[in-house]
Amino acid sequence: MERTLLLEKNAVENLLPQKFPFVMVDKMYSFTETSLVSGLQIQNDNIFFDNNTFLEAGLIEHMAQSVALHTGYEYFLRNEIAPTGYIGSIKDIEIKKLPEINDTIQSTVTILQEFGGITLVDIVTTLNNEEIAKGQMKTVLAK
User: Fold this and answer.
1) Rounded to the nearest 10 degrees, how much is the dihedral formed by the CA atoms of 131, 115, 74, 92?
2) 3-state secondary structure of 141
3) Residue 44 DSSP one-character state
4) Which of 3, 52, 48, 50 is nearest to 27 (CA)?
5) Model pLDDT for residues 51-96, shown as the tens digit of each residue
């Protein structure tokens, strides 16, 4: 599905605690209170790029940073500084295919539950509208 770009690389990077070369999200396509769609074009200077392939660790980090982008943008809209977040748990991750150089992946984050700085999300990552990874993550905000 073709999506309208909401935020580009520089704006996205300002909302994430990670900095180059560890940034694994470079686009935000949509945002609601309970969801976000992010993107990443795989470049050959990516630290998770090896032998023309984006590694599993890169996909999982992209998924986690997509959750962080949701939090960062939420705080930005309230004119507040976002606290640092951490992965509390990863559950049922399934990786079906690894993207290659110049591929653009998209991840859809759906918030299932949020309470006391702990957020449970479903994440689905696609490449050319084909599901290549999915799973659940629980993130925790630092106090």
Assistant:
1) -20
2) strand
3) T
4) 3
5) 889 999 999 999 999 999 999 999 999 999 888 889 999 999 999 9
Q: Residue 125 in contact with residue 107, Cβ under 8 Å?
A: yes
Q: Which residues, other chains included, contact 116 with Cβ-Cβ below 8 Å and sequence gap of 6+? A: none
To the question of pTM greater than 0.85 for the whole model, the response is yes
Label residue 39 exposed, middle or buried (CB < 10 Å: 0-12, 13-18, 19+).
Answer: buried
Sign of CA pseudo-dihedral 54, 59, 65, 66: positive
Note the pLDDT of residue 11: 87
Element (DSSP H or E) covering residue 57: helix 56-77
